[in-house]
Amino acid sequence: MNEADFAALVAATKETLQRVADQFAPAVFASSLAAEDMVLTDMILRDKLPISIFTLETGRLHAETLSVLDRIKETYDYEVELYRPQPEAVEAYVQQNGLNAFYESVDMRKECCRIRKVEPLNRALAGKHAWVTGQRRAQSTTRAALDVQEQDDAHAMTKFNPLADWSEEDVWHYIRSNHVPYNSLHDKGYPSIGCEPCTRAIQPGEDVRAGRWWWENPESKECGLHVVDGKLIRIKPVATNA
Ligand code: SF4
């Protein structure tokens, strides 16, 4: 992509975020603190958009991921809000199944994700009109139909994926050109980062999501934030010029 096309892509993405702020307040951005999310964090905080940023602190994140919270505070003077799982739900799961039972079956894994991610997400989204994610279409087979603006029936609100059209190269071009802080695991072979026990580094040429839940089939590799009952949430694309 040449610089003019890239500038147009950035402008369109900022327009989308501005529209979210203007027309969908209160809106929130669910950040995983990965590279894509840092692009959106930079755009939101530099333009002082009234979109609050939160992350799901599952209790199983890498130290490197948690340190991104400090980098955001240093760079933008902003504290990302943390949503944690209900302690009693975590305790019951661990007592009944063991700390790392998610390796045993897709159901066990989805139950862990439900407790540590989906329930806290639902709390974070309560009362909001829209939420923003850093998902990109090219990230995985489960995201191939992603649109910039969608109707999220499961949460009864509008969902925005402003980076749906972005490539991985676009993400890194933005980060490097704008000196955006990022998770140091990206420099160690982790293009996609989730919880520590469920993420591993990948080899050159492997799919970018190959390091997430690597023991499962590609079709099941979502944490439940964008799926319901094991199926992709029925999302209705909404016409947009972004
Ligand atoms: S990614 Fe792994 S550790 Fe994190 S919530 Fe899901 S199953 Fe649990």
Features:
two-stranded antiparallel sheet; binds iron/sulfur cluster; disordered C terminus; seven-stranded mixed sheet; Rossmann fold; single chain; globular; 242 residues; 6 helices; alpha/beta
Explain what this protein looks like in three dimensions.
This protein is α/β, with parallel strands linked by helices and 242 residues long. It has one domain: 3-Layer(aba) Sandwich (Rossmann fold). The chain contains six helices and nine strands, in the order H-E-H-E-H-E-H-H-E-E-E-H-E-E-E. The chain has helices at residues 3-23, 35-46, 63-76, 87-97, 106-125, 168-177, and strands spanning 27-30, 51-56, 81-83, 130-132, 149-152, 157-160, 227-228, 231-232, 235-237. The strands form two sheets. It has a seven-stranded mixed β-sheet with strand order 3-2-1-4-6-5-9. A two-stranded antiparallel sheet has the order 7-8. A hairpin with a 4-residue loop joins strand 5 (149-152) and strand 6 (157-160). Helix 2 (35-46) packs across helix 6 (168-177) and helix 4 (87-97) packs antiparallel against helix 5 (106-125). The longest helix is centred in the first third of the chain and has 21 residues, at 3-23. The radius of gyration is 17 Å and the shape is globular. The two termini are 18 Å apart. Mean pLDDT is 89; it is low at 228-242. The chain binds iron/sulfur cluster. Iron/sulfur cluster is lined by residues 58, 60, 102, 109, 112-113, 116-117, 194-195, 197-198, 223.
